[in-house]
From TrEMBL:
InterPro entries registered for this protein in UniProt: DUF6476
The UniProt record lists the keyword Transmembrane helix: yes
Lineage: Bacteria, Pseudomonadati, Pseudomonadota, Alphaproteobacteria, Rhodobacterales
Keywords: Membrane, Transmembrane, Transmembrane helix
Protein name as it appears in the record: Uncharacterized protein
Pfam families attached to this UniProt entry: DUF6476
Domain of life: Bacteria
Transmembrane segments: 27-48
């Protein structure tokens, strides 16, 4: 009586495939299909990104003010600039944060807003 992994007496090409080997073969085929799909997706993404037009040039905001004045003890945590305003986020010694908006040419403070974290 032939074993499952050996050919039977009816011919050299008559193999019986164990169920575990059939399952393994199917799992490898699914893994290969997934890998091919992933590589094609990454390649398509790269091609699309390379062929995109570059973003338009942004206008650089120039700040003409020589200096801005902050209250004593406040530390700058972030700065942002637009053509119309210079925005500075500060934190005081107690940990309170404020958003201060300054005029870009004169350096005068235009507004002050408290930031409340929840």
């Amino acid at each position: 009586m032939p074993t499952p992994a050996q050919p039977s007496s009816s011919g050299p090409n008559d193999w019986t495939e164990p169920p575990q080997l059939r399952t393994l073969r199917r799992m490898v085929a699914v893994l290969m299909a997934t890998l091919i799909f992933g590589v094609l997706t990454i390649a398509a993404t790269l091609v699309i990104r390379i062929m995109m037009e570059s973003p338009p040039e942004r206008e650089v905001a120039t700040i003409a003010a020589d200096e801005i004045v902050l209250p004593k003890g406040e530390e700058i945590t972030a700065v942002g600039a637009t053509p119309n305003a210079l925005t500075v986020v500060t934190r005081d010694a107690a940990g309170m944060e404020r958003i201060r908006v300054f005029h870009p040419e004169s350096g005068a403070e235009l507004s002050d807003m408290m930031v409340e974290r929840r």
